[in-house]
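Predict structure. Chain length: 273.
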Amino acid sequence: MSERRHRAMAAPLMHLHRQHVVRTDGAIWPVPAVEVGTIYRDMCDEVAPAGGTDAWQSPVDWSERIQAHVEDQQLLFGPFSGFKVSPASLELLLSDVKLGRDATTGDALIVISGVNGCSHGSAWLVVVEGGHGAAQLVLAMMSAAGAIRSDFTSCYKPLRQIGAGSKTLVYAVESISEKDTQGSFLVQAAKVADPNSQGSNTCAQQDFEDELKMLAQCQGHPNVICFQAAFRITDAQVCGSDACRKPQWAMVFDHYRGGHLFNKIVSRRGLSE
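Prediction complete.
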């Protein structure tokens, strides 16, 4: 789903998980790593029945929940008990996001880590109202804002290579869940690092982050390709690469079927401004 379509759709309601400590002056603290491991579960994991004895699972009135929403490259927080909360926002660009659910309640839960100021392993937990579908929409919105996902093979199935650059390969990939207007599964383009290219992984990672920053900031312009999502590759295989030589990241874009722009420019002996 494109970033432009995300803007056109009403965003689901979401709020910070009640495990976040809020001081009387409105200061919010991220959840420590040990507690994140207790709360978060993958979507395929079983969820414990509600009604346990953990203090943090007690219900909280909606008015006492710190509401959140995505705007530009940030996650903005609302007021809490009359206080302006601090921080009032999180920078989503280059943060890591993953979708799961609350181990006790089963609520859809997005974990945001790698944010500036977070200690190692600590994270921000965002509960999404409306179930898994609503949480997938929020995750897509965050990724379009520059957050990095880790569920590439849960979202896309590689089809064939359609292009290559000096350090990257481009594949047509088919969405596992999203369909186009004709009812077929949506085909998009995924750019990944070429495992056979020269250069260090550090340089490749820096190139990836620089391009991601540029793309996230330029979205919405009619002449800029529509960026869908960025992924860190953690699966054993993707796009035919074996585990020891797999790409370390992927960027997904809208798929344009007109061929290579360079070939078009050459065939027309240049294009006007």
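Summary: The radius of gyration is 20 Å.
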